[in-house]
Amino acid sequence: MVTISRICLLAILFFTASGFSQNTYYVSPAGNNNNTGLSVSEAFATLQHAADIVSAGDSVLALEGTYSGFDLRTNGTQGASIVFKALVENVLINQPNSVTNDGINIESADWVVVDGFTVNDQPRAGIRIVTSDFVIIRNNICADNYRWGIFTGFTDDILIENNTCSGSEDEHGIYVSNSGDNPVVRNNICFVNNASGIQLNADASQGGDGIITNAVIEGNIIYSNGIWGGAAINLDGVQESLIFNNLIYDNHATGIALFMIDGAEGSKNNKIYNNTIVNPANTRWNILLANGSTGNILYNNILINNHSFRGSISIDQSSVQDFTSDYNILENRLSNDDGNSNMSLTQWQALGYDLHSIIANPEGEIFINHTAGDFHLLPGSQPINIGSSLVSSIVFEDLDNISRPQGSGFDIGAYEFSGTTGVEENILTENFILFQNYPNPFNPTTKIKYTIRANVILNGAKNLNVSIKVYDVLGNEVAALVNEEKQPGTYGINFDGSNLSSGIYFYTLTAGGYKSTKKLTLIK
């Protein structure tokens, strides 16, 4: 349990650094709405009371406990957002707000931040944002809500990052709709949703121009969705957008679908780079392009499909104009007639596509442990160094935030292999210390593995002092796993998160002058 003094200190540091605090209100199930709300001892009892009184620049800190949701209809401003933040773990919203059938509803309220809540079992959406621009939805867990985890409508310039959305009973994990331009959907985890993991649908029938433009969908992990249909990433009327570094596996419909049903036009002129898409046997195509979805570019993707007939890419004739695809790893099954038949890679190349692409080796020869959801690349595996640098203006890093390229060329897929670069003795660089954790997400344990290369020498010493610490999203240390000298070699240590809440954590490895931090996700 975090002490009151620790809570106050964190609040001061967080909001002073953010530079937009005017009033800071506290909310606690043990509070009282007749209180001032301006300290922990004077906390309000409900999030809705805080939502009713906030103004631009105000912050609301929720203390540990279980709450009903809130409905917010007050604008922040640029540089003075309204912030609702779960200050500690175990801040659960399990009842809808008093106005809509959603846990958190942001409506006609620009410049708002919602950070760190768990929102479960809502009649409609866990978090809903409509007619509200410049909103940030970050670090939330939305599980087992009826229709959507996170939903947006007629909302421009929204940032949805580091959320976990699972178990939507009717539709999607994350749904961006209604002609909302410039959405950024990154570093989210979406799994076991009935339809899509992430859907962007421009909804021309609902008004607006029926087109979503300038979307960025990057760094998401999307798996085991679509039992009732809906691609892992479903794009209807989405144009001039970037889809890269996503890991998509074990989904039961298409991997990435670009089409027009509700949009005003097809999904055109999108760049689809460095995704890893591995489909199971009961699936559709890895990438589908239909209904006039022209001008799309596919580079550096791993597209493996275990279906007996469907394969890597299906395109219809209305979408072939300015279609470009190359430097991919593919199944030997592709289609240019909307999936009604398939052809070999050789036949596909005769049409001018994928001239530098190759047929995929077995998954066990490419990935560390694909059956356990670990799609990092094995040493010497097929995707390493054979990708195109044509992605370099967009793809600077991989899904683990490792810079690209690491070797002599770009790797294909969501992960860049970083373990084969040679280094000189007596120079400590990131090439000496390799570390990762798997599985990620995990429940309840994950194994963190790190390697000290044999040629590491620090001032003549044969040992290297190594420490690994785990932190929550507020920077609180929750575990110290290693703090001792180690000889060169490979080590693995288990991290048990059974005493922690579901959410995003970070682990930092320090070894001599080397220090690096990576993200891990605990799901219960």
Overview of the structural elements:
The protein has 524 residues and is mainly β. The chain has a domain of 90 residues: Immunoglobulin-like (Sandwich). The chain has a twelve-stranded parallel sheet with strand order 1-2-5-8-11-14-17-21-25-28-31-34, covered by helices on one side. A twelve-stranded parallel sheet has the order 3-6-9-12-15-18-22-26-29-32-35-37, with no helix packed on it. The longest helix has 15 residues. It is globular and about 75 Å long. The two termini are 20 Å apart. The N terminus is likely disordered.
What would the keywords be for this entry?
524 residues, disordered N terminus, 37% strand, Immunoglobulin-like, mainly beta, 3 helices, twelve-stranded parallel beta sheet, globular, 46 strands, 5% helix
SSE map:
Elements: H1 4-18, E1 24-27, H2 47-53, E2 59-62, E3 65-68, E4 70-72, E5 82-86, E6 91-95, E7 104-107, E8 112-115, E9 118-120, E10 125-130, E11 136-138, E12 141-143, E13 148-153, E14 159-161, E15 164-166, E16 174-177, E17 184-186, E18 189-191, E19 198-201, E20 212-213, E21 216-218, E22 221-223, E23 233-236, E24 238-239, E25 242-244, E26 247-249, E27 256-259, E28 271-273, E29 276-279, E30 287-289, E31 297-299, E32 302-305, E33 313-315, E34 324-326, E35 329-330, E36 334-335, H3 345-349, E37 358-359, E38 367-369, E39 374-377, E40 433-438, E41 445-452, E42 464-472, E43 477-486, E44 489-496, E45 503-511, E46 514-522
Parallel strand pairs: 1-2, 2-5, 3-6, 4-7, 5-8, 6-9, 7-10, 8-11, 9-12, 10-13, 11-14, 12-15, 13-16, 14-17, 15-18, 16-19, 17-21, 18-22, 19-23, 20-24, 21-25, 22-26, 23-27, 25-28, 26-29, 27-30, 28-31, 29-32, 30-33, 31-34, 32-35, 33-36, 35-37
Antiparallel strand pairs: 38-39, 40-41, 41-44, 42-43, 42-45, 45-46
